[in-house]
Structure formats: structure tokens, C-alpha cells
Design goal:
- This protein has 267 residues and is an alpha+beta fold.
- Strands 2-3-6-4 form a 4-stranded antiparallel β-sheet. A two-stranded parallel sheet has the order 1-5.
- β7 and β8 form a beta hairpin.
- Among the domains are: 16-97, no CATH class; 131-193, no CATH class.
- It is elongated.
- It has helices at 21-28, 42-55, 80-89, 110-116, 144-147, 150-173, 182-193, 210-220, 227-243, and strands spanning 2-4, 8-14, 100-109, 123-127, 139-141, 201-209, 251-253, 260-262.
């Protein structure tokens, strides 16, 4: 048995602007007087561009720029941070869907992944398959209630070790190590996984757009959420706050509950 001290969260991919692409589009519509804030991340620049496309609000109206300006728009916000805050305040959440991030969650239990994959809109998942991956060293994270009760912790560990021994015993009975036919080996590995505990540590790759992650953070860091998923999604929230400060400028952690809360939760 391998005791998991704490699940790990790794940011592994994110949406980036193609060099020169946005600039080429702006030239094509007459080169309006708008430049993305150099302090914004690439993804935040894309989100701002998406919002300005919707309203053709690159600058105040100029009749010499019919494709780059809008006669309904006389003035525009010059501050990108304020522009993005206005998008959040007006719940213009669709533009956040253009930016996606990918995380690898390591040593999370299947309790977490079973709850996480219920979030489908704007999300994609690739999880370690126990139909292919044989279990011989069960990784396990122990909730605080168990850690705080020595007798409960002892019993928890006894059960995990017993289940680990059963995995090894059945693998020996089926002679899995000597099997050459992978289809048969896969089928038998699937049989063994039925005795794997739900709390077993696993790895999952999670990709989602920023709008979807805002919803997940609000739901899964709430005090009412399950303990482990609060821990994992809280780590995701902290990373996204660091990576996209303008998009998550309305998100703050509640010092009493630890929940990450939004000033504009309906984005």
C-alpha cells in the first residue's frame, strides 16, 4: 500500500494566440486603434478580442473604419482589465469558452473522478483505465476524519492491505504474468478491478474552458462539497487565479470556509 499524502495538480497545456494572427485580422478591418494590454496573458487577450468582435468595439466610431468600428459605439473602455471586468459583470460568459486549460490530476481517488466527470459541458477527460492497468500497489488517501481517529485509521489500512493482497493473489491464480495473449490479460485485469476500492488513487487528464472551470470551482470548493474534491479543485482555482488574473479578478478565497467565491457567479 502507498499512502497518498496529498493529491497533485499539474497545469500541462493552455490556449495560446498564434503569433501574428490577430494582428493580421486587425489590419484587414482597417487597423483600429486598439492594442491588447501587454500585461494580459495570451488567453486573456483572446477573450478580450472575442468580446470586441461581438460588439465591434475596437475603438470609438470612425466612419473611415466601417469594418472596424460601430456607429452605436462612441466610446470604449481602454483598460483591458476594466473591459474584462465589465464582461464578467454583464455575464457575457460565452467569450470565456474560447480559452481552455489542461490539468493532470495525480493521486486523486475515484471518489473525486466519479464526481468530476459529471461536469460535461466544456470539459474533456482521459482517465487511467483499470481494464488495462493491473493493480499491485494500492495508493490511498485518507480523509481527515480517519486521520484524526487512530482506531479508524488502523482499520482503514488493514482493509486496503487486504484488498491489495487479494489483487496479487488473484493475479497469481490467473497466472497473469505469464499470459502472452493481451486480450485475455485485459479481460482478466477487468475482472480484478471489480475488487478495487473506490478510494483508490488514480490519474486523470482534465481539459476545460475557463467558463466551465468557474462553474466547477464554485460548486466543488463549496463547504458542502466532498473533502478531497474541495482540496483538488481548490488547487486548480489557485493556479487559474495566477495564470488568468484578469478573468478570475472577481474570484477570492473565503478565509473562514476556504471556498473560492465569485462576485459574478452567473458568468
Amino acid at each position: 500500500m502507498r499512502e497518498i499524502k496529498e493529491p497533485s495538480v499539474y497545469l500541462v497545456a493552455k490556449t495560446e494566440l498564434v503569433p501574428g494572427g490577430l494582428e493580421a485580422y486587425l489590419r484587414d478591418i482597417g487597423d483600429p486603434a486598439w492594442q491588447p494590454d501587454p500585461n494580459l496573458t495570451s488567453g486573456e487577450k483572446l477573450i478580450e478580442a472575442a468580446g470586441r468582435i461581438c460588439y465591434r468595439s475596437w475603438q470609438g466610431y470612425d466612419p473611415s473604419l466601417p469594418e472596424g468600428t460601430n456607429p452605436n459605439v462612441e466610446r470604449v473602455r481602454s483598460s483591458s482589465k476594466e473591459y474584462l471586468r465589465n464582461i464578467l459583470a454583464h455575464e457575457h460568459g460565452s467569450v470565456l469558452e474560447h480559452v481552455s486549460v489542461s490539468f493532470i490530476l495525480k493521486d486523486v481517488s475515484r471518489v473525486v473522478t466519479h464526481e468530476l466527470v459529471r461536469h460535461r459541458a466544456g470539459m474533456a477527460y482521459s482517465q487511467e483505465s483499470l481494464r488495462y492497468v493491473r493493480l499491485d500497489n494500492l495508493a490511498f488517501w485518507f480523509p481527515q476524519a480517519v486521520k484524526g481517529n487512530p482506531l479508524a485509521l488502523k482499520r482503514y489500512k488493514e482493509v486496503v492491505k487486504q484488498l491489495e493482497e487479494v489483487q496479487r493473489e488473484l493475479a497469481t491464480l490467473f497466472d497473469l504474468s505469464q499470459l502472452k495473449d493481451f486480450a485475455v490479460k485485459k479481460s482478466l485485469t477487468s475482472v480484478l478491478r471489480r475488487l478495487a476500492p473506490l478510494g483508490l488513487g488514480t490519474t486523470i487528464l482534465v481539459t476545460g474552458n475557463l467558463r466551465a472551470f468557474r462553474h466547477i470551482i464554485a460548486m466543488r470548493t463549496s463547504p458542502a462539497a466532498e473533502e478531497e474534491i474541495r482540496l483538488v479543485v481548490g488547487k486548480i482555482a489557485a493556479i487559474l487565479k495566477r495564470e488568468y488574473p484578469a478573468i478570475f479578478q472577481d474570484m477570492q478565497q473565503n478565509p473562514q470556509t476556504g471556498a473560492w467565491e465569485f462576485a459574478y457567479p452567473k458568468v
